[in-house]
Amino acid sequence: MQIVLRGPSAGYEAEHVARMFFPDGVLAGADCALDDPSLDLIAAVDHAVAQIVYLRQNGDLYWKIATVDRDMPPKQREYALCRLLYTLACEHTGIRPPWGMMTGVRPVRIIHDMRDAGATEEQIRQRFLEEYDCTPKRYEMALSIADLQRPVLEGSAPMDCSVYAGIPFCPTRCSYCSFVSRTVGDKSTRALVEPYVDCLCRELTATRRVVDECGLRVRTLYIGGGTPTSLTAPQLRKLMAQMAESFPLSQLEEYTVEAGRPDCTDEEKLRILKEYGATRISINPQTFSDEVLRNIGRRHTAQDILDCYRTARAVGHDNINMDLIAGLPGDTVEGFRRSLETAISLDPENITVHTLTLKRASNLVVEHRAAAYADVAAMLQSCDLLYQAGYRPYYLYRQKGTLQNLENIGWSKPGRECLYNIYIMEEVHTILSAGAGGSTKLVMPGQRRGKIERIFNFKYPTEYIDRFDTVLDRKKGVKRFYDACLQTNTTQTPGGM
Question: Which of 222, 234, 285, 482 is the most buried (most CB within 10 A)?
Fold first, then answer.
């Protein structure tokens, strides 16, 4: 299937709408002939006073045309073209995406933004159900998440921040993974880990200096990856000790460490996490099927996951998240339901359900997606079990390339929501990121929907280590950002000094 875009309003949004129905579609070049009867295509064409959309499949041609005002604002023209394309595709494929024609990755934010702008609840409902054509179930879920998040967002102070530290190493690389990570099984990678941890500790020290210089308050800490527990016990202890030295643990609201995989997480490491102040950990099975685990490249069994979880409880961890992924190769609707039932039976405080996202950097074979993942929507229907078990959705996001244009949802027991996940998804305060591939997101104090500036670390561990002086130098950008914000605020405030 070729995706053909012509005219000023036929851009990213129209392409994304087309991919909702034809995820494997290839964006056609300017020389693509619309009148070639042998070519399967979906096309959006924007003329000065008319918009035309086409769908040709298996020799059958369908089309729609609509007149438009020459002076229509660009955003309205874009929406009109996308709506025409969406309607045509729905009618002739029989597919109705659960999020309708919504292309944004953060549906909940739309609700927060509309409420902040003074919109009524009816106007919000109309935006979702009529303008975007979301299903009532998806809208109600987004609304419930927004309601749950509201007191968390309202309690966020202008100078709050969170700190993220990344460990780009894993015992093996999962087939679906697109993160920058290296396997610690090979000799060259093992040689990188120690100098990487040393650099990361130095960057965390520099981060603390920046926090103090800018007058920030650290609300949450998060160590992610990769797999942080792929570090040796001494390396993990060094990192955790540095975090404890750099940041006031007693003043934190939350401190998460991903202990994700049982093939590198043992009792000693779990005790180190507890000893050095982690208040929340993740043990991420993705599935409880041994066959599916093998399919994605994991070198452990479902029993290993169960053993790791029970060890974590025995050590004293009382806030545990578990991740599952719907749509993994070889999984079935029944198999996913069994995995979800197993996770619920363990009674973790959080269960995060992801929908498989196929990205260019992963090893999964994309061309088999339609045949292999047709049941992913049915898998997610099993999430009703989470409601029945007392869990509630508390954060939600979507990604480009997610199967069937679905979503990722974090579920929690009441009062056990991961605050860091809410903060980073809704972009309510600055996230200071340390480590290879880190992206610091600077949020203007008191302007949750203001301009966000970013400071990037080098992507790969070797580059991060070799150019570490540059990493430290870039930290100065945080102070410049807050100095500029302070200057702006004082000049705009009557009587300000």
Answer: 285
What does the alpha-carbon distance between residue 338 and residue 356 come to, in Å, rounded to a whole number?
17
Whether the CB-CB separation of 430 and 211 falls below 8 Å is answered with no
DSSP state of 228: G
pLDDT digits (tens, 9 = 90+) for 131-180: 999 999 999 999 999 999 999 999 989 999 999 999 998 766 655 555 55
Q: Any residues with CB less than 8 A from the CB of 198 and at least 6 apart, and which?
A: none
State the Cα–Cα distance between residues 431 and 221, nearest whole angstrom: 10
Cβ atoms of 13 and 43 within 8 Å: the answer is no
Question: Which amino acid belongs to residue 104?
Answer: G
Q: Work out whether the CA dihedral 288, 358, 21, 386 comes out positive or negative.
A: positive
Q: How far apart are the first and last CA of the chain?
A: 62
pTM (2 d.p.)? 0.89
Q: Interhelix angle for 233-246 vs 187-214, to 10°? A: 10
Identify which of 198, 202, 256, 183 has the alpha carbon closest to the alpha carbon of residue 412. Answer: 256
Cα dihedral 194, 198, 201, 206, rounded to 10, equals -150
The interaxial angle of helices 267-275 and 302-315, nearest 10 deg, is 40
374 CB-near residues (< 8 Å, 6+ apart): none
476-492 helix and 187-214 helix, angle to the nearest 10 degrees? 30
d(CA 151, CA 304): 38
Token reading at 79: 């929406």
Single-letter residue type at 488: T
For residue 210, CA distances in Å to 163, 201, 433, 464 come to 11, 14, 12, 19
Spatial distance between the Cα atoms of 109 and 87, rounded to a whole number of angstroms: 25
Amino acid letter for position 347: D
| 217 exposure class (CB count in 10 Å sphere: 0-12, 13-18, 19+) | middle
pLDDT digits (tens, 9 = 90+) for 224-261: 988 899 999 999 999 999 999 999 999 999 999 999 78
